[in-house]
Amino acid sequence: MTDGQKKSGDDLSVGISSDQPTTQDTIGFGPYSDALKLLLTHETTEPPLTVSVEGKWGQGKSSFMRQLRKKLDDDDYRTVEFNPWRHEADETLWATFVLEFFRQIRQSDQQSKLDNIRAGLRLFRLRLDLGKNIWETSRNILLLTILAFGLLAFPVILYFHGPSLLADSSQNGILKWILGSSGAAVSGVALLTLGNRVTSRLMNPIRVDFDEYLQKPNYEARRTFVSEFHEDFKRIVDSYTDEEPVFVFIDDLDRCQIPKAANLMQSINHLLESHPQLIFVLGLDRQKIAAGIAAENEAILPYLSNSSTDPSEGEEGERISNTGLDFGYRYLEKFIQLPLNLPRPKEEDTRDLLRPDQEESTNQSGSEKSLEPIIETALFTRNSETLERVSQMISPVLNNNPRRIKKFGNVYRLQAILANQESVLAIDENSEEGVTLEQLAKFVVLRIQWPRLSSVSRRNPTVLTELTEYATGEKAENELSELAGLWTDSDSLLTLLAYESQNEDVEMELRGEDFLRLIQVAPPLDRGGETSSESDEPQIPLTDFNTPNLSKLFGKPSRSKMIEVLLNNPNEWFTQRELAEEADVSRMTINRNLAAFLESNIVEESESTRPRRFKLNLDSEIVQLFQEMDVDTLSN
């Protein structure tokens, strides 16, 4: 082979590529990690918070989290990393997490040995009011005082009386000298021993308690310990962090055994309730974690009705599902305040992964763009006129539900930062180009509440333009296209689209071209957790096809699982074994028409190929439509 051939950049002869997570941004996550970091570290952000970084295996969750953590570390924020999958062999995963939490806090670059001693002293002071330790604490202080006084008194006595003792050659004088020296030596050794014990306790205030806990076979004693620990945990965090936020990164939750992951998530939920400095960043596949929570609570599910009224959803209440995975999803929604679904990498970024001279993405990590002052004021000022207009517009659509409104606010601000980084936002009311923050708010709530309309508008933006013109009275119903006409019965949607500000200078109408500009810089929405509760969004009709029965190939119980694997991996070939291995617990309940349609597009590579291989052969736009459908569409 010639030198020229060896230097060819398009061959794969450079060796084996590592698949380990990296802090180098090679697939275009930079703008997303920059935006999330800016939001989490903004002075108005109030922990405790839980952020979920979501995506399937291999999509880059771990790399994204490492890149985000590096940016926080570079700005001297406190961070902790924990991988439960590596510790799941431990009997009590949450106890292992807490030990690892304090180990990393004490060994962080921001924490010197002197800082650890000071923190231990602060904790010592905070614990003085703990009733169960008051006698032990008082005894140790008294003993230290006596020993210290004895040791310090010895050189004073020696200075004033030493010459006379040495001059006294009598046996009695020598004996006094020996006894005095021995007493001082014993006092010194005792003082050093006790001091070392106290210092060790100050340097590592939690390990003794946990070692004792982990060795207890008595479960009643364990329960008492857990209760006492939660009371003490805030004191420990306050002492070691100076009441500054701590970013806790927990990755690979979906790789743990189901009970382990579910228990850790529940423990995190308890920690959030009483420890305001903690911001958790969780890397997970929401469906798998929801399945784990449902499995962990399997015993109580039969005693819940299939649906119940949630009193937090307004006067009428909202019918919610308590069955299976829906129970797990509802649990997760209660304490994940900001879900971030990772976008699919751009084609040019994934193409470069095979190059030996692989460099960071053209969306350079580290090129963080600060918010325009006028946009920052509008987004983060309590008395912001923009937020007041947005609140009045979206609150009725979200049933005035506090949890939903807060989650909307988090997603809205994150998407505003992303849009600002990509120069999509209008800087002020006089800007002739760009999308206003009010239009962005309509866009966000539209994607949350009407995901099917969002999917249609991505491919056919004129549908949204038609509906906006119909809502504002510019078009009559008989002038609408058949597709746009599907949404004319949705009063809440039409009210949202028609909403205008009393300030005529503020553009609030959301049309198809505005939607397209925003969708280009918006991360995907979570299909499992924050799905629409609207009952007035229409079903998109599907034609019934006469097709072979997939269950004959794969077995009836696995039918929906296999379809989901093929749907999530369009145009990829799978053997029956590979499909079985990839098929995870599915929440899909597929209606007959949809199943028939999908089955009609499953093709076999060749009748003579062994093992047999199958794929879903669909146009990419149709695949995307199905992937963005919520569960109601798939099951009804």
TrEMBL record:
Record keywords, A-Z: Membrane, Transmembrane, Transmembrane helix
Domain KAP NTPase: 31-297, 326-410
UniProt key word Lyase: no
Region (Disordered), start-end ranges: 1-27, 346-370
Database matches in Gene3D superfamilies: P-loop containing nucleotide triphosphate hydrolases, Winged helix-like DNA-binding domain superfamily/Winged helix DNA-binding domain
Polar residues biased stretches: 15-26
Transmembrane residue ranges: 141-162, 174-194
Composition skew (Basic and acidic residues), residue ranges: 1-10, 346-358
InterPro entries: ArsR-like_HTH (IPR011991), KAP_P-loop (IPR011646), NTPase_KAP_P-loop (IPR052754), P-loop_NTPase (IPR027417), WH-like_DNA-bd_sf (IPR036388), WH_DNA-bd_sf (IPR036390)
Name recorded for this polypeptide: P-loop NTPase fold protein
